[in-house]
Amino acid sequence: MSGDRAAQRPEGRGTGLSRNYTDRTLKLLWGRAAGHCAMPDCRVELFADATDYDPVVVIGDMAHVAGASDDGPRSTPELNAKERNDYENLILLCKNCHGRIDKQARSNPAGRLKEIKQAHEAWVRASLPERGRSRTGWIVLGLRGDHPIDLATAHEALAPDFIDSSPHWLEVPTDTDDWQAVDGMIAATVTELLSGGDTFDRRIAVCAIAPISACMALGYHLTSRPNVRHFQHHRDDRSWAWPRRAAPAQDIIVSGLADEDPECRVVTFLFHFSAIIADEAFAEIAVSHDRRVDFRVGAPSTAWLQHPDQVRWAAIEARQAFERAMQLFPRCELWRVLYAGPAPVAVAIGQQMNPTMYPLVQLYEYRHKETPRYRTSILLQG
Questions:
Q1: What is the pTM of this model?
Q2: In the CATH scheme, what architecture does the domain 253-380 have?
């Protein structure tokens, strides 16, 4: 069948709606899951081997994260039929796990299933690594501020994969009076990088040392669709390669999302990773705020980020908090973001902001010797 045609795959129970999956969706879902159940305590192979008398049997289900119908578990009425049957809304499960997560939907919300799917696909990549150089190289995107950065060690950071062509550069001035022009430049560059092919197949390695607003805007325009790897410049080693050490404990704590407020119009997200954002600095911002959501780590420091898992954890916590905020504050019109943390994490958090579903996002840039210390920069408008 042609990859452009939708394959009719009626399966499972529901309200009689047809399940239409494109060939591309089927290949991505089964390929990235390596034909195994995504639940970490299961991961059974979803094929029964052929016997002398019977053929191979598929024993897996393509389960929906948000319900396939409005009456299904985790239903999301605002999604259309195509969105419900896209790769992003599907997770590969054995029949036992599928039945359990649907019958225990409260214990298995959409955000948790997305996290499980992402973790399983990461497990597949780690368990079945590419041998030597793959056929698909990485596009290196360097995002820098006023100071030059050296990408010579990017090859080492990506090994055994390779860099495809010369690095792409985005230069952002530290002081600018036109942040929206910066956002437009970033959006145009990303559009060019992602054009002319399947966005999901793009491999982009981001090496960023730049103003935080630019980093978060870059992630916002990249979205979560391409395969993006984030790299931190380790000054002591003068290298983009992650140190060879075990991942630290997950220490991100999120507060401020305990109760519902249908009348909330503004939510401010504060990220305390490299330093604590002082209450006084927050109070200097002369606009009203209805709700405050804080992301804190055990010991904020410029040395906090030491492992790529920390980038992934921060992104997951941000995505879950954003989805929770949408549920608790359905009439919110503006999100504000104050950030004290490393550049690669800012890019990853920006990737979690859905341009089509979330409200306007106002970013702020920090200036230590100015008042207010946090000044408005880029307005992400979808």
A1: 0.67
A2: 3-Layer(aba) Sandwich (3.40)
